[in-house]
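Hey, I was hoping to borrow your eyes for a little while. I've dropped the whole record in just underneath, so have a look:

——
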Amino acid sequence: MNVLIFGPPGSGKTTHSKTIIERYGLFYISSGDLIRAEITKRTELGKEMEKFLKKGDLIPDTIINVLVLSKLRRVRNNFIIDGYPRSAEQVLALENYLYDHGIKLELALDIFIPKELSIERISGRRICSKCGAVYHVKYSPPKVDGKCDICGGDVIQREDDKPEIVAKRYDIYIKNMKPIIKFYKKQGIYVKINGNGSVGDVWERIRPLLDFIHNREEKRREHEL
C-alpha cells in the first residue's frame, strides 16, 4: 500500500502517519523530517532551506525533489509520504519516478482543517531545544513553564511557528494544493477527511478507509500467489 498524506499546518497528518506506519507496516517518508535533518546538521543545503522557512516561503522544488526521491529510492514500495508533493512541479517529478519504477499509489489522503484552527494549533506548539520533545501551551504544556519535562532543556517556539508565519504558510499551502488535489481527483485516489476534533476522532474517520485498501491489497496478493 502506497499512500500520500496531505494537510495544512497543524492538521495532524504527521501524528496520523505514525499510527498508519505502525498499524500497516509502511515505510515513512517525511519531507519535513528530511528538511529538519539537513538544518540540524548545519549543512550548506540546510542553511539555505532555513532562510526560506524563517520567511514562511516554500523551499524550491528542485531541492525538495532531490531529498524525497533519494529517500524513496531506498524504500521502493509500501510507503507513506508526508507533506509531498506540494506543487505541480513536485507532482510531475514524483509521477515520473513512480512510472519509471512501476509503482502505483493507492491513496492521496487530505486531512483538512480551517485557517483559524491551523494557527491555534501551530502557534501554540513549543519544542525542547535540547531533546526535541513537543509541547503545546493549551493542550499539553510542560509541567514547569519553559522547561522540558524529559531533559530540563529550554522549551522554545520555532521561528516558523509564529502566528503570522503560520498564516502565510496556510495561504500558500491552500493556493498550491488546488491543482494537486485536482490531479489526484482525476486519478480517482483523492479522499478529503475532516481534521477537526481529537486525534482519536479523526483517526476513526481515517481507519476504515485504510483498512479497506489494506485488505484489498492483501486479497490481491493472495490471488496472485
